[in-house]
Structure formats: structure tokens, C-alpha cells
Amino acid sequence: MATGIWLAGGRGSVAVTSIVGATAIRAGLADTTGCVTELPQLRSPAFPAIGELVFGGHDPASIPLCKKAEALAVAGVIPARLVAALTEELATVEPEIRPVPAAATQLETAALIAEDISAFRYRHSLERVVVVNVSSTEPAPAAHPAHADADALRQALGEPGAVLPASSLYAYAAFISGCSYIDFTPSTGARLPALDALAHRHAVPYAGHDGKTGETLVKSVLAPMFAMRNLRVRTWSGTNLLGGGDGANLADPGANAAKATSKQRVLGETLGYEPQGNTRIEYVDDIGDFKTAWDLITFSGFLGTSMRMEFTWHGCDSALAAPLVLDLARLTAAAHKSGRSGPLTDLAFFFKDPLGSVPHSLAEQWALLASFVRGLADA
Amino acid sequence: MATGIWLAGGRGSVAVTSIVGATAIRAGLADTTGCVTELPQLRSPAFPAIGELVFGGHDPASIPLCKKAEALAVAGVIPARLVAALTEELATVEPEIRPVPAAATQLETAALIAEDISAFRYRHSLERVVVVNVSSTEPAPAAHPAHADADALRQALGEPGAVLPASSLYAYAAFISGCSYIDFTPSTGARLPALDALAHRHAVPYAGHDGKTGETLVKSVLAPMFAMRNLRVRTWSGTNLLGGGDGANLADPGANAAKATSKQRVLGETLGYEPQGNTRIEYVDDIGDFKTAWDLITFSGFLGTSMRMEFTWHGCDSALAAPLVLDLARLTAAAHKSGRSGPLTDLAFFFKDPLGSVPHSLAEQWALLASFVRGLADA
Amino acid sequence: MATGIWLAGGRGSVAVTSIVGATAIRAGLADTTGCVTELPQLRSPAFPAIGELVFGGHDPASIPLCKKAEALAVAGVIPARLVAALTEELATVEPEIRPVPAAATQLETAALIAEDISAFRYRHSLERVVVVNVSSTEPAPAAHPAHADADALRQALGEPGAVLPASSLYAYAAFISGCSYIDFTPSTGARLPALDALAHRHAVPYAGHDGKTGETLVKSVLAPMFAMRNLRVRTWSGTNLLGGGDGANLADPGANAAKATSKQRVLGETLGYEPQGNTRIEYVDDIGDFKTAWDLITFSGFLGTSMRMEFTWHGCDSALAAPLVLDLARLTAAAHKSGRSGPLTDLAFFFKDPLGSVPHSLAEQWALLASFVRGLADA
Amino acid sequence: MATGIWLAGGRGSVAVTSIVGATAIRAGLADTTGCVTELPQLRSPAFPAIGELVFGGHDPASIPLCKKAEALAVAGVIPARLVAALTEELATVEPEIRPVPAAATQLETAALIAEDISAFRYRHSLERVVVVNVSSTEPAPAAHPAHADADALRQALGEPGAVLPASSLYAYAAFISGCSYIDFTPSTGARLPALDALAHRHAVPYAGHDGKTGETLVKSVLAPMFAMRNLRVRTWSGTNLLGGGDGANLADPGANAAKATSKQRVLGETLGYEPQGNTRIEYVDDIGDFKTAWDLITFSGFLGTSMRMEFTWHGCDSALAAPLVLDLARLTAAAHKSGRSGPLTDLAFFFKDPLGSVPHSLAEQWALLASFVRGLADA
To answer: Residue D319 and residue C313: Cβ atoms within 8 Å?
Structure first.
């Protein structure tokens, strides 16, 4: 029996790159570069095969998958030859990415979402479905007393008005459907006590937050380097220039703040102190999917000598994110199968702002991940 | 009883920065930033205190330590106020840095070196002495049959002509004096079967090669990052601009080749393949001690998407090296005391071109080091 | 007879670097690197000699010049040996940098300023005095009807309340004293119709705005390069990290906006269109006087091919500004002597936001300047 | 009557990009971005229209133009849609790019080259033909006494053996055919007294050397910036990483030396002194046509303060060169028509290593060019 991935934001760049990629790998047209779960050190029979993943999802946009894939090819994110070769396969997925349901109350909306997921599951005889949020970053939501308690939450959702942001409503719908949930964005997702309780009640695992694809990935190896050498980082200042849909969205101060906080967390937690400097995000339409990040790091060494390092990262966010979406879905499905529930803190390797009190050094996160995978295989 | 450090190249930038630093720490005028053995995770009662280290050495140059320290202050390597405050202390070390002995055969020269070290040891009632090579990088020496066997080596040294390069003759002299030996340079040092056998015969440990202070340090965390993310590094091309004495020396093609090989080794061993590109070293007098390295890395990710990263490292080599010299002396002295002999492969963390078949990822090297330090404390 | 420079902000970094520099040149302790008016192509007998310049000024701060100079030496802006050698000379200037006068109305304050300048002039038998604003950048002032007319302005100044920002009040005081005026900052200065009229009425010249010392200087040669090659600049995005007093001040959104606008003006005027991207200024205390600017430029060439350029500028603002202050004072004094009055648009070479409708390409500005200097010599 | 361009190296990247580009412009499928002669300030009725240029040439390779164009599209140099749209037009040019003739003596080879050019000219009723060398860079040739005199040269060419390198033999063939000649490479081309004499004898103009497309272009505006500001450049060190055919060729030490010398010339001539540092060229196959250059510049300013600038240039050499080939052909054809002969030193704007004693500052070169174009229009 196969495993399903239900993508909130199923027509966005990350989702479509994931779909094209998994389909290309199944067809033998692409290798698995970028997929962490395909490394010899991590490969495991506990994972569903990439070629057996089945895709569905919701998206408010109606652009056909093929058109979106062609646009991604023009932007240099995926090769045009793959899009041409996979037209039929994409047409098969096309009807599975449905409009976002809407109802009078959030409780009814959640029920409609759950219904779509269940129908998808039965349509494809799926063993289980992993719900993955790859939609646009939300501003931080207003606090609500019902966020603290699962039963109070159910009651509040039944009344008109928005109690949960969309990312959290998806987590809610996933949990009541018995599905695991992954938040690849900095949005709230499952990070509310009421939702955590619900995940445990339904015995499903969840993972997040905010896929670590570029500048923060580099920070998560450089900051430990300075720490291991007892060098004092004085300034760490970052500029991120990005275009594309997510860029425009992050130019919104609310979303920007959520992201920028998430991006600096690694420094304080790895170094043990906060260096000077901020992380800035600027939307530049012309940059498109190829984000450019520039970081300046000043540090002092022996006897106070001042030194500096700069780096420029020029990465394609969707191409970096998509294989991690496949990895996370495989890992979370296997964890679900093996009986894990609640937050999967051992998946910190994949996230800028990981769940739980975990190390932020990439090497330590790798060790956690490897041990987690061994645990799955033994189960 | 105190521990001695005998510096081959005792009037060079690294040596004098080490001496000024240890003296400043003893006097309470500087903190231990840059000293790895002072990190909470590694601190150990097995180490001699930095303040109790006693310095001596050899150098063909005759520049007074004070003058050299003043020049380093003008170059921005050490603060002028420290040099001013430590005039008396430096004057005390001054006579301990002696001219390099020379005799008719290398055997006699080694005996004179050993005599100087022994006299230093008894003069200061030192428990043990660590010999550290911080002199200029040598070209690769001609092979000699006597390099393979300790007894053949002893005999060959007794004849006129150069059998060993200077760095190896220091290792020889150290071992026959019962002293441990560290090679902080890419020179041959103790890396000859005859010298390894001698170290075991005299039950002394040795460590090396080539202190990892800048560009290679960064490589040792970035290369594993690409590997852990299953990203394919296609090009890794580095340019190193440096001035100062070592810069001029490395402009010599022979020395340059030794260094450049040492600097690329981390890539093949961490990635499992050799990306395109080389490491270049250019001598630019005006750059002085503040080396600038620029690296371009191109890599491909999911579905072959091309991406790139650049970094510039602007570090003061002597200020980065000096605390590691103190660290290595403390670690090697403690290892000697605890009965270790032969190559200390667990100290790979400190070297570009470490001894033995060891990991090149900084995080794995750190784990080796931490376990080594715990072993010393338990001993 | 000598020429005086009256510095509004006389104890700031730029002012003190200018004073130390001119004094060191007079004493034969420094050469004139950085002084444009000392280039063979521009040197002219029309200029007062650097060694004959006499300094005075106002500053709300009371830090002694010597202390400020020592702090600049520690920060690496000026050599410590110069400060040590010029203690006596700085002590002579010390009493000439006076507290900022304050009175019940701005008219009275202007009179006190004018009085201080006149006393300075007579005390040193100065042929003429150039007033230079090197004080902190002001936020954009509120519009006031009296800004449009010199007589209305005089009347409004006589009433309580602030009609003019400080930079403009200095221009007012300069003009009524028969002195020329230079604004080295992005503040309003003489850029009001009433003040322009006043300059003409008193037959004095003025110059400004905002000394072009770093990132904008580079833009003023790179933007014409793209234009001359018919390459289409798509994005020009700049990040400026700076510490020091001016950095803290520019972190204020009002001042920041003035500066950022001034810094982008060169692009639109040189390219003929506005590329995407902004200029950001971030205050990072640790960076100090050595500003780091990073710019990303993306452009398209033949058949639409996308290309990119990045640059990092790591310059000491005070060291770049100080010789230009001397240049501007010499040029403006010579212009005054030769009978020029009103805006000196031919000095655009020195400014980010030059007066008048002038070219922004550095090479064209150089041609204007050279012709201006020839005109002075002929006069 | 139309103008012909005869390309030595007609199937190389620069040649094919030029052909595709001119064809696309004629078909209205591309604009003239990158063409300097299309700027409003330079446009002139004296130039042949881009759409009326007719292409022919020689190349030892036999790859069809269409295949080469497709490869350039895959490499991102030209858009795939243009190649698809221009298949027919490229097929028309296909037979005009012929194999390189070879005969027993260079004199006979030159006659065969001249014959091909003449046949091309009559076949298309061309008013005139410009011969452009865009073939691979040659090593510096051995000196030969016949290089000094046109008659001696003719005689020497009649004997077996190579008297002239290929680039110079093309200049010879061009001149005896009454055609102008442009060397876009650092090869010798027309730079021999015998060839200069021949050009004058046949009353034809010639231009060169080495198209200024990237790093040197940037140098030619930055070096004057430092000079105009009286800042002392201490180090200028450049690294060029490039792949593609020319990259492999430049890895040859002989060709590399020619190129590197050509690239540093701008510094000495613009600054008036030689800063420290070299220009390095490294062949990295993976980089392809998109060259990456990194330059470090250190400079001192007022009172000796040390500062630095770095830039990275990531440009597509063929896309930068191709429009300049069209520009040069139009300018040289117009010059020929107006009666100019000998070296066209006013075209220095286009070259790294221009003919004659001319300014190396881009702005001054622009002024020369603009005045040259005005002269053509007046003629």
C-alpha cells in the first residue's frame, strides 16, 4: 500500500517542484540528489519509496500544474525536458489538487478538508497520508484562549470567526483524520497546546517549522565552527534578497518578522549569546526563485584581534526545499507507522525553527536524525 | 612542576604571539578567547595551566622578542598595550630563544638540539617539554632509504650531508630526548616510518600536520554540510592572498605545492569525490598577516539545478594559530603524562592534514577530541 | 593672509580627522593622499595652502580634541604616532572649538554664531572663513512658508520656535557674516530658496550636499559603465552596515530616509531608469568607523542573458571624508575670492546629492571640476 | 549594398552568438541591448544596419551552426526560443562558414583565405568585408626578422614554415584583399610593423586587441576612480575562473601569460604605478561560459588608513562579446568607407590592450569614441 502526501499550497513552487521531482525519479529521469533519506548513511527499508508517493492537496490558485511546471522551467528551477516528458503524469495529479474548501465556521471548513483528505486516501487505497503545509507564510495570529485546550478549541471553532490561522486549521484537520502533519513554513501550524494535545489523542506525529534551505543552513554549520574554536562572534548581519511568490509575501512586515526571528534563533542557541546585527529580507522581483543572501560576520580571536568573514549564498529555494519535503514525508510516514506520536523533535536537521529543546548545530542534528532512522529500522 | 614548550622557529610570528598571549593570560591582562582547551566542554585538570607554561626555542633570526612583538602590534596582530605591559616578562624569555645549532653531521646537530632542550628542562625544573615546529614551511625533501628504519637513520645521520629536513631533525632530537613533538606546519616532521618507530621506542607521542586556521577550517564545516544534504559539489576553487614571512616562503613553488595539497585533502575525504578546482596561494606583501581567502563553490541540487556559494575569509593567521599552539602543547603534554605514545590521531581537529585515517568533518573531529580529553581525565 | 574653516560639529570624527590631517601635513608628518586638490591635474595657486588653514568651530560635545584623536587612533582611523606628535598643535586648536550658542530666538542664536565666527576671523587675521557643516544628519524638517523668502525668513526667525533646522541656521549665520558655506551632510543646509537668495545678496558661494565617500562613489563609476555598454541594470540593492556616531544617528528612520534617497539618486540620473532594489542602512556598533557596504547588481545583456556583479566596500568614512573637507574648503575659498556666489554646482564631484542639474557620472563630474579649477586660475 | 563580416573562428561561441543575435535583431525577435553603437549618443547613419550584415568565415571545427546554437542555449548564453525560431536563417549561413584552407606555404594559404573572402564578397554583392578574429588565443609567436618589413614578409611567407601566427596571417590576407581587420583576441593579429605598413599600403583600417568584456571593463572604471580621488592602490589581485573552449585554451601557460599581461595593463597606465598582485586565470570546466572573476583591492587613504574593496563579476563572456563584435564591425566598416586607414586607436573603448598610446580610463575612451563617431557622420 502506498503513502499519500497532501499539500496545503499544492500549486506553489515548492509543491510543484516536489511533484515533478518525485514523478521524474519514478520514471527514471532524475536521480535523488538533494534527498537526504537517500544517503547511504540514512537509507532505510522503513521509508516508503519515493516512486510510490501519491500527491494531492489544496490551493486557492487554479494555475494548471503543467503551466506552473513550465514557468518553473523558464525560471531555471527545473529542467524543461522533464516538464515535457512528464505531461501525462502531471495531468493525472491535476484533479487531485483541489480548491480550498470554505464554510460558515472553521469547524465545518476543517470537516471539508478532512473529507477531501479521506476521499483522496480511499481513492488511492493509501496506507496513510502525510499533510504538509507549503503554503505562503502567515502573519503571527492573535492569541485566543481556546488555543490552550483541545476541547475548548473544538467548541470555539464551531462559532463564526477565525480562531485558528489556516496552517493550524490544516493541522487540526490532519489530526482528526488520523494523519500526521508537517509545517515547512514559519507559520503557526501545530504549535499550539490544544493541537499538541489533539495529536497525542489521535496518536499521530507532527514536525516543523520552517524548512532550512539556505542562509540558515550555512549558519547552522558556521556558528558551531566559531563556538568550537572559542572565537567570539561580535556581529552577524544578513541580507536576503528574494523574488517569487514567497518573496512578495515576506515583504509584508508581519510575515517578515516571523521569518527573521526564525532565522536568527540558531545564533543565540549555538553560540550562547546574541551577536550584534539583524537579518533583513528584501523583495526584489527580478531575483525570482534564486535567492541571494549575503552575511557579514565579524569576530574576535586571541588577544582580541578583529577578523571577519563574508559569504554569499545564491540558491534556488524551491529546488532546495522540494527534496526535503519528500524526505520529511517519508520520515514522518515511517514514524507514524512505527507508532510515534506528538512532536518529532529528532527531525530538527530539516528546520530553521525546530520543535522542542534541541541542538541547532547541523552536525548534532544529523546525529539525532541518524539515530532516529536507526530506531525506525529496528522497530 | 611546570611544562616547557620548545619552539623551532621561536622568533616567528606564531611563536611570539603564543609567548605574548600565554604571558598576558598569566598576568591577567587577556582572556583565553581562541583557546579550545578552555571551553567548558573540554576544560580538564589533566592539562598544565596556561600560566605555568615555560617557553624556549631555536631560531636562525636574531630579532629581539620585544621588537618582534612591537612589529606584530603595528601589524594589528596583538594589542600595543600588551607589548608595553609585558616588556619585562619578554626580556626573561629572550635568552631562552637560542641560535640554531649547526655541526658537521646531522647526528651531531641533533645532539646539540637535544642538549639545548635538556639544559632548558633542567634550568626550569620542567616535568616535561613539548617540542613544537612553527618554523617556515619546507619544500618536500628527497626520499632516502634511511627514512624507513630507525637504526639505518641513526647511521645515515652520522655521515656528512642532509638526510632529514630540519622539521624531521627536530622530531628526531625531541624523541631521543624523551620529548613529545608537534608539527604545526605542512613540513615532513615526524611523518617518516623511522621517526614513528623512534617515537614508540622512546614512548613519546607526536601530533600534526599543518594547523587548521582559516580557509580549511571553513571547508571542514561547509563540505560536510553539502554532503549531509546530498548536494553535489561541482567546483571548489580557492584563492589565498597572504603576506608576511610565511607568505613569501609559500610563494616558493615547492612549499606551495605541499600546502595546496594539504588544503584540498578535506574535500575528497569529506565528499567522497574530488570536485573541480584548485587552491591557489599568492604572496602579496601588502596583505601582511591578515590573509584573505576567497572560495567559490558551485553545486547542483534536486533535478540538477545549479547553485553557488562564495565566501571571503579575512583572518589573522598568527592570531588564529597561537592559541592552538597552546592547546596542542597542553593536550600533548597531558597525553604524554598519561602514557600515550605514537601519533595522536584524535587531535585531527587542529590540523589541515591530520595523522592517520580520521574524519575530516570538524564536528566528527570535535567528537574525537572530546572523547580523547575525557580519556585523559579518567586516566 | 590665511583662510579659516569653521566646523559645525567640530569635535566629531570627520572634523577631528581633518584637523589632525591638516596639522600633520603642515608639520611634514603626513602626505596629501586622499586630497583631490593636490593631484597634479588640479593643483592650483588659487587655493590656500593646506598648511595655512586655521580651524575653529562649534560642538555640543565637550570631549577634548586630544581625547577624540586618541579614540580615533584606537579605532584605526588615524595613526597613533601622529596624535602623540601633535599634542601641542591640537591644544592650540582646542579653545577654538566652542559650545553651540543658544538664545531665545533663532535670530539671536544666528547672531551669536556669527559673532563667534567674526571673533575667530579677527583673532587670526583671516582673509576669509568657510563654514562647513560636519555635524550629525538631521531628519527632514517641517516645511515653513518663510523658507521661500529671505525677508520673511528674517522676520520668522525673530519669533520664538524653530523655523530652520540647525544646518540651515548655520548657512544663515555664514551668509550674513559674508562667509561661504559647505554642507557635507544630507541635512537641509542652504537648500532653501530664502537661503539661496541670501547667499546671492551677500555675494557668497555655497556647496553641498552629502560627501560622496564610499558606496555612492563606486556607484558613480559603475552605473555609467553599464550605461556606456548599453547593459540593462535590473536590480541594484545595497546594504550598508556602519557603527560610530553617525551610524547610531542614521538608524533613526527620519535621517535614514534622507540618506537612502540621496544614495540612490545616482542610479536614476545615470541610467535613465530606476532599477529594482533599495539601499538599506543598519547600525552595528561593533563595525565602528569602518563601514561595510555590499551591493548586488543584476543586469541583462545581449539577447537578454542575465548576469550579476557584487561588490563589498570596506572603507573608513572619516578617513575618506576628511581630505574632501579640506578640498572643499580650499575650492570654496578660492571661488569666493574670485567673486563666485550662489551654488557651486561644479563641485558635484564631491557629493552624493549635488546641487543643480548636473551629471552624476564621476568622470563627467571630474571634467566639470577640472574646468572650474582652470577658471579659478585664470581669474 | 550590404557589409560582410568574415569570422576567423566562425563556429566558436562568440561568432555564433553574434550571428544568432544579428539574425534575431533583423527578424525583430530581440532588441539591441549590449550594442554600444545603438545608444542614442552614438547612433549614426554612417553605420551599416545590424540587419544588413552578412556573415561568413572559417573554422577548423565542423559542428553545424544550429547544433552550436543549441548548445549555447542549453548553457544559458542565448534563449532556446531564438534558436528554434531561426533554424532556417542559420541554415542559410551554414555553408558560408568554411574549413580553414591549408597549403604548402603561408603565402599560398593567405591566397586561399583571400580567395574565400573575395568569393563571399562577390556572392553577396558586398560593398566591403570586415575580417574579425574570434578564434582561440594563440601563444606568443617566435620573433622573425620578416615581421619588420612588408616586402621581406611577402618573401618569407613564400618559403616553407610558419612565419606568421594564424591571427596575423588573417590580417595579411585581409589587407591584400582590401579588407579591414579586427582582432578581438589577445593574439598578435596586425600588431607587426610589416602588417601595419601593409594596411597603410592598401589603405585599410584595423582595430584591436582583446575585447574588454568583464573584469578588465570593471577595472577601467574603478582604477580611474581611485586615481581621481588620490587614493593609493596598494594591491590589486584578480582571480578568473572560466570554462568553455577559451578557458581550456587559456589554461595553456603561453596563452595565459598573453591574457594576464593584457588584463593588468590598465592598472599601470591609469594609476601611474603598478600595485602589488597579479591576475590569475584558472580553467574550471563546470563554470562554462559564465566566467566568475573575483578581485581584491587594498588601498590607503588620508594619513595612511588602510581600506579594501572586493568585487565578484559573474558574466557570460560570449553574451558580452557578441554585441561588441557587431559594434566593431559597423565602426570599422564606416571608418573604411570614410577613408581611414591604419590603426583605429579611437576604438580603445572596446579593448583590454588597445592599439596606440591611448587613455585606459573608460570615460576617456568613451569621449574618444564619441568624437570618432561624430567625425564619421561629418565625413
So the answer is: no
